[in-house]
Amino acid sequence: MNKIIFEHPLNERMRTWLRIEFLLMQLHLHRHFTQKNALLFFHALSELLEILERNDVKGDLIKEIEGQKQKILSWIELDGVDKELLEGMLEKYDLFLIKYNSSLRIGQALKDDRFITTIRQRLMIPGGCCSFDLPSFHLWLNQSQEKRDIQIDKWFQHIALLDEPLKTCLQFIRQLGEFNSYACTNNFFQETNGDVSLIRIRVALDKNVYPQVSGHISRYNIRFLPLYTDNNSNFDEIEFELACC
Q1: pLDDT tens for residues 10-66?
Q2: Do 134 and 78 share a structural domain?
Q3: Best CA proximity match to 24, nearest among 141, 162, 140, 136
């Protein structure tokens, strides 16, 4: 049976990280663009820089890395654990911290880039990136693919400081949550938990329902809504799986 996973953050930090993760995926997907779809890349880049400007992402990631290191250190002497794997994770985390301690604010070089700044300013205007609005951008898009790729690779070097550490931290958090089966009766499910930052909801794809979540780190509610308004299915009970991370 095909299933779909919905993720819902329960604090502002996790909300920010999931949005960054989404935008990084968009950047990687559209990094090899043409003149016709170039704005997909620059919209994602502009939104990522906007988030980085408004949040102390570097500081939050450093705290998370240090916290995850402490958990690994508490596990490493337990019987039956893969010590080699855990030691490799510790080395990776130490490398992340060394890079962060010797770096400026994440994305600062991209924020200061005049070319990117000019495009970002015009993105706020509907249709504002036409060739007559941004002749420099029009010229750049007509450069060879090889020249553009060299420039894009340089931009991605500044993003790399964010990409791998965030991916590693989120993977660790997700793996802490084990899926358990539940049933949502009368289209309402409520759970009280401890310090949870992310819930993951897995439901059968053919149900054509999606969860509406409200709450915070200690208590949250889940309701399932139909994708199509003319869906006459019986929603007295929806079986699903839930992981608290």
Answers
A1: 999 999 999 999 999 999 999 999 888 999 999 999 999 999 999 999 999 999 999
A2: yes
A3: 162
What does DSSP assign to residue 179? P
Amino acid at 167: K
C-alpha–C-alpha distance, residues 23 and 210, integer Å: 22
Domains held by the chain: number: 2
Residue 101 host element (H or E): helix 83-101
* 48-55, Cβ contacts within 8 angstroms, sequence gap of 24 or more: 48/20, 48/23, 48/24, 48/107, 48/159, 49/107, 49/110, 49/111, 49/116, 49/120, 51/16, 51/19, 51/20, 51/23, 52/20, 52/105, 52/106, 52/107, 52/111, 52/162, 53/107, 53/111, 55/16
**Angle 42-28-36 (CA atoms, 0-180°, nearest 5)?**
45
pLDDT in tens, 92-142: 999 999 999 888 889 999 999 999 999 999 999 999 999 999 999 999 999
The answer to whether residues 120 and 235 belong to one domain is: no
Q: Domain range for residue 162?
A: 12-176
Pair 56, 144 in one domain:
yes
Residue type at 190? Q
User: Taking a C-beta distance cutoff of 8 angstroms, is the pair 233, 226 a contact?
Assistant: yes
* pLDDT confidence of residue 232: 55
Indicate whether this model's pTM tops 0.85.
yes
Q: Is residue 2 part of a domain?
A: no
- In this predicted model, what pLDDT tens digit does every residue of 215-243 receive, in sequence order? 777 788 999 999 887 665 556 789 999 99
pLDDT of the residue at 234: 56
- Among 151, 176, 201, where does a domain finish? 176
